[in-house]
Design goal:
Elements lengths: L4 H13 L20 E2 L10 H18 L11 H14 L6 E3 L3 H14 L6 E5 L4 H14 L2 E5 L9 H5 L6 E7 L11 H10 L3 E5 L11 H4 L3 E4 L14 E4 L1 H4 L44 H11 L1 H23 L5 E2 L11 E5 L3 H10 L2 E2 L1 E3 L3 E5 L7 H16 L1
Parallel strand pairs: 1-11, 3-4, 3-5, 5-6, 6-7
Antiparallel strand pairs: 2-8, 7-8, 9-10, 10-13, 12-13
Helix pairs in contact: 1-13, 3-10, 4-5, 11-13
Length: 410
C-alpha cells in the first residue's frame, strides 16, 4: 500500500463500502460530527444510539413522569433480571436465570469474589495477574487483607497476556479463586477461557472472569466454557452510557449456596415484607443489594437489540477486520517512526482493541484530541485504539492513524 493520503482514504472508503455493518454507524449519535474525525476510544465509552435518546426521553416523560411509583409494579422491579437474561442470550452464551444488572463493576467484583471464596472453605489463596485492570487488583488486595488470604501473582507478559502455563505455575490445592480478564485492558490479549476454566477446576478452585473488554466485541460461551462467575461493564461496547450499571453472572449450579456480603432489601427473599433478619432471595436476585438504577439500564437495551439483529459472529468479523486494518496501517505508517505494537499480532489472540507504544505519545494526546482524533492513553507510553464494530468506520481508522503519523513527524 502506498502512503499517499488520497490512496489510503480511497482504500478505506472501499472497505467501508463492502462492510455489511457499515450502515449501522448511522444509528449512533455523533457519527457525522465534523469536529470528531476519528473516535478511537469506544472501548472506554461507546457512542450513544439515536434510539436510546428517544427511549430515555420517553421513559422520563411517560414512565417515570406518567406512572411515577406505580412503575415498580409494572416492570421496573424485574428489569435487572429481564435485561440480564437478554444480555446473557445475546452476548454471553448463557442460559436465563444466571445474570443480573446491578452495581458498578467494582462493587459486583467484590460481591462475586467474596461469595466465591465462601464456596471454597479451607483454601487460602487468590490468583490474579499483575497486569490485570487496577480495580480488579485493588479489590482483591482489599479482600485478601480483610480475610487473611494470600495473593498469588501471575507475572504475565504485558504485550500478550495470561497463558495456561502461566496459570499452572501458581495454582494449587490452596487456591480458592482465580480472577482474570477475558480481554486484557492494555494489550487486548484474548484469554483461552475454556482451557483456563478447565485447569482452574482441576485444581478445585473457581474462576471469575472480568468481561469488561470483551462483552459486545468478542463472542462468549460462558455456559459451555464452564465459567463459574463473571462481571462486566455496559458502557463500552454495549453503549449504556457513562457509569451505566455493570452485570454479574453466577453459574446456576453455584447459586443455591452463593451468598454475597452486601445484604440489602432488594436482594432479600421478601423485599416488601420488611422482616427482621436477612434471608437471600432464590436465584440471581440474591446478588442485588439496593434499589437498582432503572434509568441507567435504559440505553443498554438498544445496543442489545442491534447485536441480536446482526449476531455476535458478524460483530466479531467486523472487529477483526478493523484491528487487522489498523495494524496494517501502523506497520506501514508508524513503525518506521519508532512506534512499537503492544498487542498480539494473531487476531485469534486479540480482542477489539490494539495498543501502540512510543515515548512521545503522552505529550501528543491533547493535540490529537484538539484535531478531532480521540484515542486513549495508557501509561507508560501507549495509545490504545478501541474500534467499536457497530460504530467505527474504516475511514475513521485511516484518518486517525494518519493524524498520529503527522504528529510524530512534526
Amino acid at each position: 500500500m502506498m502512503t499517499n493520503s488520497s490512496t489510503l482514504l480511497t482504500r478505506a472508503d472501499a472497505l467501508d463500502a463492502s462492510d455489511p455493518l457499515h450502515a449501522y454507524r448511522d444509528l449512533f449519535i455523533g457519527a457525522d460530527d465534523p469536529s470528531v474525525l476519528a473516535y478511537l476510544d469506544g472501548n472506554s465509552l461507546g457512542r450513544p444510539t439515536k434510539a436510546s435518546a428517544e427511549r430515555i426521553n420517553s421513559f422520563v416523560t411517560r414512565e417515570w413522569g406518567g406512572r411515577l411509583i406505580r412503575g415498580w409494579d409494572e416492570g421496573w422491579f424485574e428489569l435487572p433480571i429481564t435485561i440480564g437474561d437478554t444480555l446473557a442470550a445475546t452476548t454471553l452464551g448463557a442460559a436465563a436465570g444466571q445474570t443480573t444488572i446491578g452495581d458498578s463493576t467494582t462493587v459486583l467484583l467484590y460481591k462475586l469474589a467474596r461469595g466465591a471464596l465462601a464456596l471454597r472453605p479451607g483454601r487460602s489463596e487468590i490468583v490474579v495477574d499483575r497486569d490485570n485492570f487496577p480495580t480488579d487488583r485493588y479489590v482483591l488486595e482489599s479482600i485478601a487483607a480483610e480475610l487473611g488470604f494470600a495473593l498469588r501473582w501471575i507475572e504475565s507478559d504485558r504485550r500478550s497476556g495470561v497463558s495456561v502455563d502461566d496459570l499452572l505455575a501458581v495454582v494449587s490445592d490452596r487456591t480458592a479463586l482465580v480472577v482474570l480478564s477475558h480481554v486484557s485492558y492494555r494489550s487486548g490479549y484474548l484469554l483461552d477461557a475454556a482451557s483456563v476454566a478447565r485447569e482452574t477446576h482441576e485444581a478445585g478452585a473457581l474462576l471469575l472472569l472480568d468481561l469488561c473488554h470483551s462483552v459486545g466485541s468478542v463472542p462468549l460461551e460462558l455456559d459451555s466454557w464452564g465459567i463459574d462467575l463473571a462481571v462486566g461493564c455496559t458502557y463500552k461496547y454495549l453503549n449504556g452510557g457513562p457509569g451505566s450499571p455493570a452485570f454479574a453472572y453466577v453459574r446456576a449450579e453455584h447459586q443455591r449456596d452463593f451468598v454475597q456480603p452486601i445484604w440489602g432489601w432488594m436482594g432479600s427473599d421478601d423485599p416488601f415484607g420488611m422482616a427482621q433478619g436477612y434471608e437471600p432471595a432464590q436465584g440471581m436476585r440474591r446478588v442485588i443489594s439496593g434499589t437498582p438504577s432503572i434509568l441507567g439500564m435504559i440505553a443498554l437495551q438498544d445496543t442489545l437489540a442491534l447485536i441480536a439483529e446482526v449476531g455476535m459472529a458478524a460483530v466479531r468479523a467486523k472487529s477483526i477486520a478493523l484491528t487487522e486494518y489498523a495494524l496494517e496501517l501502523v506497520r506501514e505508517l508508524l513503525v518506521p517512526l519508532g512506534v512499537e505494537i503492544g498487542s498480539p499480532q494473531d487476531s485469534a489472540e486479540r480482542g477489539g482493541h490494539i495498543i501502540i507504544d512510543h515515548p512521545r505519545f503522552e505529550s501528543m494526546v491533547e493535540r490529537l484530541r484538539d484535531k478531532g482524533v480521540i484515542p486513549d492513553f495508557r501509561a507508560p507510553q501507549g495509545l490504545r485504539l478501541g474500534l467499536s464494530p457497530l460504530s467505527t468506520s474504516f475511514r475513521e481508522v485511516c484518518v486517525g492513524i494518519g493524524v498520529i503519523r503527522d504528529e510524530l513527524t512534526n
